[in-house]
Amino acid sequence: MVNPVTEDSRARRRERAAATLLGLVGKLPLPPDDLSARSDTQRVITRLGEHTECGITLASFAARTLSTDVLSDDPCFDWKGYWRHAMDVALTAEFLNRRASSEQDRGTIFAAAILHDVGALILDYLVPKSFARVRWDAQRRCRSVILEEDAELGIDRMRIGACLAKQWRLPPEITDAIRLHRCPPTSIDQRTRHGEVVALIQLADALCCDDRFGGPDRRSVEAQRELGAYLGVDPDIDLSDTREIRAQAATWLDVCSPVLGIAARGRPDPQHAHQDVSSDPTTNRDRFTSIDVRRLTEAVTRFAVQLSPGDTPSDVCASVGHCCSEILQLERAVTFVADCAHTVYHCAITDAGETTVADATELADGSERISEAGAALLTTIVPAPPLADPVRERYRRVFGGGFQWMLPLVHDRKLYGGVLFDSADLPRDTPFGGATTIEMLIALFGSAVAQVDVRVEIDRSIDTDYAVSQRLRDADERSARARSLSTISVMAAGAAHELNTPLAVISGRAQVLARDTHDPIARRALEMIRSQSETCSDILDQLIEYAKPRTPRPVVLVLKPWFDDFLRAWRAGIEGPPPDLEISFADPAIRVFADPDQLRRILEAVLSNAVAALPKEASCLIVNSPSTESDETVVIAVEDNGHGMASDVLERACDPFFSHRGAGRGRGLGLCIAQRLAEVNEGRLWLESRPSAGTTAYIELPSADFAGRL
What we know:
Structural class: alpha+beta
Number of strands: 13
Distance between the termini: 31 Å
Largest sheet: 6 strands, antiparallel
Number of helices: 24
Strand content: 5-15%
Oligomer: single chain
Strand order of the largest sheet: 3-2-1-6-5-4
């Protein structure tokens, strides 16, 4: 059952999801005091240097604590790639620290860099399926993974990583580096003493994410210049320095592999050694002769007309493949373009003149990246290099048994992808252009792909800035709500202390007087006084329960039989005829991890509000749970066919003392207490409603399997 979701309800879901994840982080174990005493860790520290002790020991503990065997529909988290990037950033930060003649401690810089993206490990451990879906959506939409995390999970890796750093009592310099490592350079406050450490990690991460390193994200050249100016260094690293850093990072990662739980770094075997084709670009250039000028002009014109500003990388990939196949008269070809993170190739297949967008190809950890391609690929058609192997393997059925060539897609000496074709499919008299024509095609196609890449990069930057501002606003709202709860708690506790005694006296005196009087009118009045004083006391108790609910005692409950027992008791306790109920559970064996008494209170409040909203005739309640055993959370939906609520009423439905019913029919505390009880059980409760369309209440709680992992 799908219901329309308002923007406000999405924001509330993100807030509750973030609160749940932060609560789960609080349950993660703390590093022991003798963490660095392990023999394997000591061997690594001895080889790498004493300044690495803090970073290596904490990274080792994070690797052991946050490891998981949970699988998802998306490929598993790339642990080796994660630690490879972390090591690249650590050594690059040390290099920049030396170049800047900084007084920053080497150990602090190394620890901050090796742990700068620890939030990704936490998300993969806590919500592996959701995190895999977020990464896949970010790749599919060519959007910032930070923005996708915030939109889907209510929190991103920076905030959740900083939360863990505070829990582990790490120095504030390291905490700030984790919290700000992907924020815009303008977020660094130059008046703080931690700004230089944050800037070093940001610049190192930016350089390691550049094409020379092939990391998970890229920043603009302008951002790198800003960071360099802040640190007083030139952000450009010489090619020789880059090679030295990469080689040292590879060596250090091999040394650290036992404590990080990853296999030793593999060395790819030489490719194409069996083929008798020259890899010399000049030889390949001489192999091709001339292209029909009319065919070239017509194909290029159609290609230019087909392009539009809103094209995705996959769209441009298909257009490039079709045009190139038409110009070179190729029967079959596969075009691929790397995404911004250089971890996925967008692909398109051309077969017999028809071009279709194909599934993206994810790069394995050992694959050669486009960022590592040599300059020989930038000027002419070349034998298919190792970086194209993932595509060749994935679409082996497209090619015959011959040798593949590649037309590189290049702009401003930057490689974006290529068009692969099989020499066995080419007619013997197929005309190929000389060096000038081929370079023109490379420049034309490369420019089209580069424009899309720039647009995607701009969108990612805008999305990241928006995510930062959104997080600040959400933090203000959470802070305001926390202050409100604290105020209510203090008020309720004080009121209970000051009022319960006089209320008890009033109730007792009323009972005594009612017993001694024979006047029926006076007795009814005294009974009303006693009843209303007990009502006042009950309201105070409910306020205290809302502000400071009892610590839950969760147990594993098989939801379907537990709900059947609850329903029988609830039906027996309601006044008047019970409404028509439709009950459905997608998985009768689904198990929930919650406090039984508090779950009963939640359902009683939700069902009572639903019954109160039902029409007098043809009333109906629908209770269902679409969750299955593989889900990380269990969702219970209660839908009524009442009049629904307007947006302003819906926004306040869970506020204390707010009631949409007539005077005297409700205290306005049922839903707000139910929402608090759901939150303390690491779940959430929210409503979705439209006028004249009824209301649906959703209760989300941890599944038994998910909660058992903590």
